[in-house]
Every structure is written in structure tokens, then in C-alpha cells.
Write the C-alpha cells for this entry.
Amino acid sequence: MTDAAELKRRTAELLAAHPPAGTDRLDFLKARFDAGLAWVHYPEGLGGLGAARSLQAVVDAELEAAGAPDNDPRRNGIGLGMAAPTILKYGTDEQKQRFLRPLWTGEEVWCQLFSEPGAGSDLAGLGTRAVHEGDEWVVNGQKVWTSSAHNARWAILIARTDPDVPKHAGITYFLCDMTDPGVDVRPLRQITGEAEFNEVFLTDVRIPDSRRLGEIGDGWRVAQTTLNNERVAIGGMRLPREGGMIGPVSRTWRERPGLRTHDLHQRLLKLWVEAEVARLTGERLRQQLALGQPGPEGAGMKLAFARLNQEISGLEVELRGEEGLLYDDWTMRRPEMVDFTGRDAGYRYLRSKGNSIEGGTSEVLLNIVAERVLGLPSEPRTDKDVAWKDLSR
């Protein structure tokens, strides 16, 4: 059984064989993966050692103290937080060997082709079609709100493979090469002026059956693994005290007493406590994850993340007064990542408006919490046993 002492020993061996100061960054990351110190809870040969998930912090602390490079996780959040655990659970041995290493090292960035113009909150109603032809699938359709599609080499994709069965039953999950002919990525300019999101048009895109993940028609079940991990990745990220959005507004409060009012003080105290409660709840959720796969509880964390970000950023704009209305740059850009704490208050206020939409709308997540966490009765559904092709659209 791999314990903390064994991990420290293995980490010391890695550092001795590949000193960070004299080793190319990518070479070091590859060596770390091969040593099983990337995801210690993954199986041996796939970046891990089959250890407890909680022991990852031991490795990370040793490497950080030695000045070792990390894999820049924010740049490939979809790959690390969503694609990797889904491939691990449902992928073939060949798929795991092919995709997990370059995904973890950051050599290959991933995006998510799930939402569509007519299938966002009702994701199971998606209409992108995949038709089986020989040992390939021919895919046609449109996806939207695709983060990082302009940087991504690969995508996790769900498409309808059988329109003659109810909507949840006729979906299959694929791994799509974003460089293939027929994949057209177009920017979607947001309220911030930037285009971190995209819409993706798929025209006669041919995907080999070897890049199908899971069984034909079982895509909805596979996608649940992705979505549960997505909500944990968005709402349950590890933060220090006063990490995240509460940090900048707390610093402004301390450093500029002339901006303070009694009303703002009361609101800041309330939000500071709620942010700390959310942070500690996230820590507990990660401890639960060490014992198994994420469940619907992640929906609650994502709900809290969205609400807090919007309320905190609104308070910060009010605290700063006229200065809070300023915005640094409206230039059209296609950034590689979202940086909430490295930008100004105006950016945080505008960008946080999307937090209650992306990764599942707050309304849908409230239903998930009600039905799957609290055990309340499900809402009536008239489309449960109706073939997708017969649904009104």
C-alpha cells in the first residue's frame, strides 16, 4: 500500500533524476507522469500508483517546495477535470494509453462539445447526428458555448445515434479530433468583449469507431461522469482562505478605509462567511471524492460558486464607486483561460454573470439537488417514453 512516506521517497527520486532547474519543463512533466506522480490515485502506468486520492497533496507540496513546474491546470481544465476521469472510467486500454499522458502534460488541450443552440438546459434533447458507416461515424451538427475550442486538439462529444428511441437512450459519446476536416470553430464574443467561448460546426466529420467512448447508445450514462466531474471542477476547486473572488474585495476593504460604509461592511461580513463555508464544504467534498466517484453533491457546490461570485463582484463594484465602473480593455481577444482574480473589478463583475449558465444553469442544478440529493419527487415528464424524432422542437 502506497503511503505518504513512499510518495515522498518516489518524489525525491524524481527530483534527483530530473532536477527542475536543469530539466526542460515538458520533459519533467513526462517523467513525473511516468513515475506515477501525476494523479497518484490513477492506476500504475496511467500517471498514478493506485494510492489514495488525498495523498496527491503530499506530492504536490514536495514538488512545489523544490520549484518544479506544474502542468498549468487552468489552461486545460476541461481535459484534466472532465475528459480524463471519463476516459479512465469508460475508455479502452488503447484509449487510456493514447490520451491520458499528453492530456496531463498539457501537450493536448481538450474542449467539450455538449451544448447546442436547442439543447442547453435540456442537454438530452441534442440533435447533432452521428451515422454509422463501416468502421466510422459521420457527424453533422452544431455545438455552442465551447470553451477553449480555438486552442483544443481534442474534444469530448456526444451525438445522437438513434432517433427512434427516447432522447436519453439514443446518444453515443465520442472523442473528436478538432483538426479533422469538417470541424469549423467560430468565436462567440461575450459581454466582456472577449471570445473565450466558441460555436463549433460539424460537417461530415468522420470519427473512427475506435474513438467511441463506451457502448453505442450509452452516451448519456457516460456523459453523467463528465458532468458530475465538471461541477466539482467548477465549484469545488481547492482555495486558501480568502481565495477566489472574496480575496480582491477583502484587500480593497482593508487598504482603502475611505470607501467603507456600514451597509457595505455588513454585506462584506455576510459574503466573507459564506465564501469560507463554501471553501470548507469543498474540502469536505474532496475528502468524499477520495472514497469514490463524484455524485450529484457537486451541483450544490457549483450553485454556491455562481451565486457567491455574482454577489461578491457586485459588492466590489459598489465599494469602488465610479472606479468600479471602469474596464481595462474591450479589445476582441481569444484568451486561453479565465482569470477572475488577475483582472479588474469590472471584468469580474461582467464575467461572473456567466457562472450561473456555464456548467449547467442554476435552475437545472436546483432540480438535481432537489431530486438526487434531497430525494424530492421528480418533476412530471411527458417526453420520457417518446422517441426523440417525435418530440416537438
Observations:
- The longest helix spans residues 262-289.
- DSSP finds eleven helices and eight strands in the chain.
- The longest strand covers residues 197-208.
